[in-house]
Automatic annotation (TrEMBL):
<dbReference type="Pfam" id="PF01031">
    <property type="entry name" value="Dynamin_M"/>
</dbReference>
<feature type="domain" description="GED">
    <location>
        <begin position="583"/>
        <end position="676"/>
    </location>
</feature>
<dbReference type="GO" id="GO:0003924">
    <property type="term" value="F:GTPase activity"/>
</dbReference>
<dbReference type="Pfam" id="PF00350">
    <property type="entry name" value="Dynamin_N"/>
</dbReference>
<dbReference type="InterPro" id="IPR022812">
    <property type="entry name" value="Dynamin"/>
</dbReference>
<comment type="similarity">
    <text>Belongs to the TRAFAC class dynamin-like GTPase superfamily. Dynamin/Fzo/YdjA family.</text>
</comment>
<dbReference type="InterPro" id="IPR001401">
    <property type="entry name" value="Dynamin_GTPase"/>
</dbReference>
<keyword id="KW-0342">GTP-binding</keyword>
<feature type="domain" description="Dynamin-type G">
    <location>
        <begin position="72"/>
        <end position="333"/>
    </location>
</feature>
<dbReference type="GO" id="GO:0005737">
    <property type="term" value="C:cytoplasm"/>
</dbReference>
<dbReference type="InterPro" id="IPR020850">
    <property type="entry name" value="GED_dom"/>
</dbReference>
<dbReference type="InterPro" id="IPR027417">
    <property type="entry name" value="P-loop_NTPase"/>
</dbReference>
<dbReference type="InterPro" id="IPR000375">
    <property type="entry name" value="Dynamin_stalk"/>
</dbReference>
<keyword id="KW-0505">Motor protein</keyword>
<dbReference type="InterPro" id="IPR030381">
    <property type="entry name" value="G_DYNAMIN_dom"/>
</dbReference>
<dbReference type="InterPro" id="IPR019762">
    <property type="entry name" value="Dynamin_GTPase_CS"/>
</dbReference>
<dbReference type="GO" id="GO:0008017">
    <property type="term" value="F:microtubule binding"/>
</dbReference>
Amino acid sequence: MASLIHAKEDIISPKTEIDTAPMMNVTISQGNRKDEEQSVHHAPIVSPYNDKIRPLLDTVDRLRHLKITQEGIQLPTIVVVGDQSSGKSSVLESLAGISLPRGEGICTRVPLIMRLQNNPNPEPELFLEFNEKIIPTDEGKITDDISIATEEIAGEGKGISGNPLTLIVKKKGVPDLTMVDLPGITRVPVHGQPEDIYEQISKIIMEFITPEESIILNILSASVDFSTCESIRMSQRVDKTGQRTLAVVTKSDKSPEGLFEKVTADDVNIGLGYVCVRNRIGDESYEEARAEEAKLFDNHPLLSKMNKSMVGIPVLAEKLVKIQATIIQRCLPEIVRKINAKLLANEQELNRLPKHPNSVAEAMTTFLRIVGSAKESFRKILVQGEFDEYPDAQEMHCTGRLREMFDKYSQELHSKNVVNRDFLLDKIKVLKETKSIELPNFLPKAVFLTLLQRKVKGISTIPLDFVEKAWSYIEDVLTSVLLRHCENYPQLISSLRRAAKNLIAKKKQQSIDWVNVVVEMENLTNYTCHPEYSTTWSMLMADQATLMHRVNDPHSSNVVYIKRFGEINIAHLRHFKGLVEEAYDVKMRITAYWDIVLRRMVDNMALHLVFSIKNLVNKEMQRNIIEELVGPQGTGLERMLEESPSVTEKRNKLEKSINLLKESNNIVANIIDISFED
Ligand code: GDP
Ligand code: MG
């Protein structure tokens, strides 16, 4: 049988004893004498610290079996990568001393986790683990069983899958190693392979080699230029300095020329060094294969020049065992810390999940609490301008946003109706229509009112648009506040949305009614007791004389400067000489009065809005929502008694994860004391 490792009792020669201090770059002292070299080839691989490492490796394997990586906790792993047919399976086969599916094309279609365990029992024991099943197998059947398992995981044909298959090999003489064999990389899909095979395989490989905890075992065929290997490019992407990459060069027997130079030059940055091997060829037995390998590196004129610490499967096995010990010892404390942190976080999250109410009374209490806290949040952002609950959500900073809307409203009101073209012409037309037989300079009230009504009509849509916009905005904010507070009771969402909608619709209608009354009042009566009206009018009238002078003098300039209106062309006014004076007066009265109207529109709107919002927050909101949910038509409370599926799902997921982490914690608790004492 393949005996890479002899039983423990006969292994320890001073030469092969390995420093127990963890280290990554392993070199093995070499002997000069022939017999010493011989003993390197058949070197026992079990090192004295294996007794210590074995439980650690078992721990990691048990964590892997629990699928702890699902919790985002990465395990130290030796990952085998290489281009298609570079010899990955052959290397694993050599290490395990068993036959694996091997050959041209893509054989490995799922990640194969290989757990090698040295076992005193002379009878090897082999198991396949996949899809929650454990299937015993043996050396004769293993190739077929792997193919059957692969088909069950990845389907028949050439498809691949990221779900792993675990092969456990308990055998006397194998090194205690766990490695993952991955599908080989291929650029070009061959017969029956899916079109995106390269992307699929790259994705799986990247998943395995990206974590810092992974050691990349890069299998390179001696016959190729290493720098063109796809697997080298991939490992360089995640491990630039190569500090966690070890290269295994296969097929040394086929391409010995220049191999020594290639590995010495190290053009591709392999931090953990190279090991050149010769795998089993054809029907050779393992013993024959190892003997042939030893002969090759001893006698070949080119290959024998290589340092013995760089050649042969036993050297590779020993290096891997050492590297594995190092990474496990380095990673375990962090893994323990992560398990505990994750466990704590999940337990806290589980506690935060809403207690499920058991009675209508309990549901009522919960509901009132939700509405109460929503009301408080709403008051803060809408009335008090406190944004501690929404520091970064600009759209929830209501006082500021409403202020912006309001300023825009005011600007819009002021910019409407400002036209300097055909100065006074509209006034003249109205005067002409309304004049009856009466004294000149006697301004009829109807003229003023007609003109005022036109102006009011011109702006009447602006306050309506504004209240429409303001309440739509407040509805969005109210809905979002309510939804945030009932996060854990999604069954309330639709009722709360409806409540918010109905409530705001009511408020909006009130505002529209109010605006209509205000506009109607401005339409019907012209009144102000504000002294500014007279002051402004007098000030504006000061330019009347100049204007009249120009209008009456055909030789004077057509342009007159009038306060508030600037440079005005008056050519057209010369046709209406008799009416200009009065028209000017009317215009200035309207102008002075319009200032007052606009101020009323703006000020009253501000008062109205603040008043309505305060009423909404302080009185209406809570009452309306409660009525909507628990009123005659409301079914909200009954619905609260059923736990929502999403919360149930969250709870189940957390509970499952907590169990897994607790189990992991138990596993690591057993070894943590023994593993880090030195
Ligand atoms: P994988 O696709 O990377 O798993 O490659 P395999 O392990 O299936 O090997 C591909 C082919 O290369 C097989 O026919 C092997 O027998 C052959 N092979 C692997 N290693 C060696 C070696 O060291 N020497 C020789 N001569 N052939 C090898
Ligand atoms: Mg393979």
